[in-house]
Structures are given as structure tokens and as C-alpha cells.
Amino acid sequence: MKTNKRIKVIGKVQGVFFRKSTQEKARELDVSGWVKNEPDGSVLAELEGHRHAVMAMEAWLKQGPEKAEVDNLIIQDGEEQGHTSFEIIR
């Protein structure tokens, strides 16, 4: 069963290769969607895939890459969008 979540990652998450690392992890877990920087300094990601893969991705986002400092996640359930890859939105 596929699921869709939109997750806002709050903390020191820009300028630490967060988007690229998120893309690499998503591809490793076979999760599709996108990730982008937000003007407020957060990172926003839309994740779509099998429930367990999206849950693993959510757990990874709580830590992020080595230099990130994640303070909080804001998670919203979404509707399946039919994403076929995981992209960085600039």
C-alpha cells in the first residue's frame, strides 16, 4: 500500500547538503517525490511510496545528514500524486 506525506524539517537544515542527502536516501529506499528549501530556512519534502519505506524516510529526516541539526518535523498526510522519481526542486 502506498502512502504520501509532506514533511517540513525545521532546524539547521540548509547549507548542510540536506536536499542532496535526502534525495540519495529516498532513492535508496525507493521513495519518490521531491525536496526543496523554503524561504524560512526549513526544508520541505513530499514523500511517496510503500508505507514502511516512507516511515523509514521519516525516521531518517528526524536526524538528517551529518552536519544537520533537526529541531522538529511537521508532518501532513497527503493524497497520492503518482511521483515516479525523487527530485530536488530549486
From TrEMBL:
Signal peptide coordinates: none
Keyword Ligase annotated:
no
Query: Which keywords does this chain's UniProt record carry?
Result: Hydrolase
Under Gene3D superfamilies, the record lists: 3.30.70.100
Looking at the record, the residues that make up the Acylphosphatase-like domain are 4-90
Question: What reactions does this protein catalyze?
Answer: an acyl phosphate + H2O = a carboxylate + phosphate + H(+)
The record ties this protein, via InterPro entries, to: Acylphosphatase, Acylphosphatase-like_dom, Acylphosphatase-like_dom_sf, Acylphosphatase_CS
Q: In Gene Ontology terms, what is one molecular function of this protein?
A: acylphosphatase activity
Catalytic residues as annotated in Swiss-Prot or TrEMBL: 19, 37
Name the Enzyme Commission number(s) assigned to this protein: 3.6.1.7
Which family, according to UniProt? Belongs to the acylphosphatase family.
UniProt protein name: Acylphosphatase
Q: Which source organism does the UniProt entry give?
A: Litoribacter ruber
